[in-house]
Amino acid sequence: MNDIGQKIIRRYSALKEARGSWESQWREVGDHVLPRKSTFQGGREKGARLTRRTYDSTPRHANTLLAAALHGMLTSPSSKWFSLRLRGVPDHIETLPEVSRWLETAEATIYEELNTPAAGFSSHMHEIYTDLPAFGTAILFVGENNRSGGPLFQSRPLSDCVIAENADGIVDTLYRRFTWTVRQTVQQFGKEALSAPLQRLIDQGEMDKEIGIIHAVFPREERDHGRRDARNLPWSSLYVEEESKHLISESGYEEMPYMVARWSKATGETYGRGPAMDAMEDISMLQEMTKTLIRAAQKVVDPPLQVQDDSALSPVRMAPGALTFRRPGSEPIRPLQTGSNIPIGLEMIQAVQQKIYAAFFVDQLQLKESPNMTATEVMARQEERLRMMGPVLGRLQTELLGPLLDRVWGVMWRAGRFMEPPEILSGLPLRIEYVSPIARAQKQIEAQAVARVYQFAGPIAQHQPEVMKAINGTKLVRHLSELFGLPPSILRSERELEKIKQEEMAMMQQQQQAMQAQQMLAVGEKMAKIEKTTAEAQAMVQ
Questions:
Q1: Does 542 score more than 90 pLDDT?
Q2: What pLDDT score does 372 carry?
Q3: 426 and 522 share a domain?
Q4: Separation of alpha carbons 518 and 526, rounded Å
Q5: What is the C-alpha to C-alpha distance for residues 50 and 39, in angstroms, rounded to an integer?
Q6: Has residue 202 got a pLDDT over 80?
Q7: What pLDDT is stored for residue 9 in this prediction?
Q8: Whether 272 and 391 share a structural domain
């Protein structure tokens, strides 16, 4: 067992050393943008002041605004941001009443679980969105709640974790180093699982001493695929004591429990780069400019004094109402004019602040509409905003939201939290469709294209009405409802539409038969009148 522990410690040390060049950047970014998480390169003392090195809070404010915008656009707790769909099946199967009802019920179950306070989804996702723009990399852990059987969300500090990618550039290995007290370790694993030195600490009553623990998660290459016990699951989970290299626990996961999201990534690099790292020159300049401006303002408000040599008979006193005696005939005490130009300094600082806000996409996210803007101008600005954020949001869906929902589905399915699916869904794969506010906005651009087609086709249809037959109205409505995120159960299935069509045709036939009967009756009545009139005329002639 110690051999396994030694391998884990060696791999962690190698990955930790490989990211050494990143830690200095993260420490600098953390000091100015996210001080409460600047725990790299030795960390800091608990309870220490966090903003000692900053003079302007613009970077922190910009990072907070971007984090809040990402939370609202991607995983808003007050609106629907994903839906369940079937993959690779005809459209009419998804619109069947029993299928659409089951999919909506499964969605509602997941949303209910995510909004449960015990899961901690919303609070920890906010931490993820806060880390991501600052450090370029954010880490979320999705475990299992032993009480409810549902998922348990926890954000992990980047300072505690090291990662590695597979050949496809996907993060599949994570080592986390953290500290627990002896008491916490015993509560989690039990006394028997710990090393002999730790057991002696327990016997001596030193339960509050902190110890270092390494948690390693990586793909399990050698396993029995026919068995599903903890040591044959697809992902290995090992806990090792850092000092003694003792293997505390060996288990596994069905899915990768860690989601590693990266804002953007350079070729050949493992960790991501965020807006704060790109704007670090402006951020550092802003702090120096603000520091200089503060000194200049102090000199204007409380200027240095010019005092003639040996003119003052006593020390110069600056307190209100104080007296300073000087020699007769000597020059009076005057303030020293430094010539500081405060307005120019303020203008330069505001220009740098705007550059920082632009680096954090604040100018794009806060769409400012003027009263004179037309709907076309608003639409054009919205499309521009989506184009700017599109690549980042695509990466977040791939590295964060997709694996997150796969993990949540697996945890809840194994816990029996869903109803039994209909037989028609047996073996059919599910897919996740994102319907968050930003995803809907992107799709509604396509809906606006449909409106433009009708706008251009209208004048043509006035002269050639048959051109409108080129558009399949039923398929168009289904497509638009999908773009706007309507539940499939609202729309009628193909079977229901066919039934309605047949009923309408039968009703039309009945109406036609009734009209024909009325016409025949009217013709009969006319013939009878003609025959009667003819008979009366013949009788009169006779």
A1: no
A2: 61
A3: no
A4: 12
A5: 11
A6: yes
A7: 94
A8: no
Shared domain check, 474 and 537 = no
Residue 274 Ramachandran class (φ > 0 left, ψ -120 to 50 alpha, else beta): beta
Alpha-carbon 74 to chain mean position: 4
**DSSP 8-state secondary structure symbol assigned to residue 205:** T
Residue-range definition of the domain harbouring residue 526? 496-542
H-helix or E-strand spanning residue 452 = helix 437-463
User: Residue 229 and residue 224: Cα distance in Å, rounded?
Assistant: 9
Distance (Å, whole) CA 327 – CA 332: 10
Q: Look at residue 181 and give its three-state secondary structure.
A: strand
Structural domains of the chain, count = 3
Instruction: Report the residue count for the chain.
Output: 542
Parallel, antiparallel or unpaired: strands 247-253 and 258-262? unpaired
Higher pLDDT, 286 or 445: 286
DSSP 8-class letter at 33: T
Q: What is d(CA 470, CA 362) in angstroms, rounded to the nearest whole number?
A: 44
- pLDDT of 247 > 90? The answer is yes
Place of tokens 């790109």: 278
User: How far from 211 is each of 5, 45, 147, 178, CA to CA, in Å?
Assistant: 15, 17, 27, 8
Helices (H), 115-225: 121-135, 182-189, 196-203
Residue 74, amino acid:
L
Q: Which amino acid is at 232?
A: N
Predicted confidence band of residue 520 (pLDDT cuts 50, 70, 90): confident
> Token pair for residue 397?
């869906």
| Residue, of 306 and 525, whose pLDDT is higher | 525
Amino acid letter, residue 403? P
Domain boundary among 280, 296, 317: 280
In a domain, residue 465? The reply is yes
Instruction: For residues 144 and 239, state if they share a domain.
Output: yes
Q: Is residue 104 part of a domain?
A: no
Largest CA distance in the chain: 162
Same domain, 72 and 218: yes
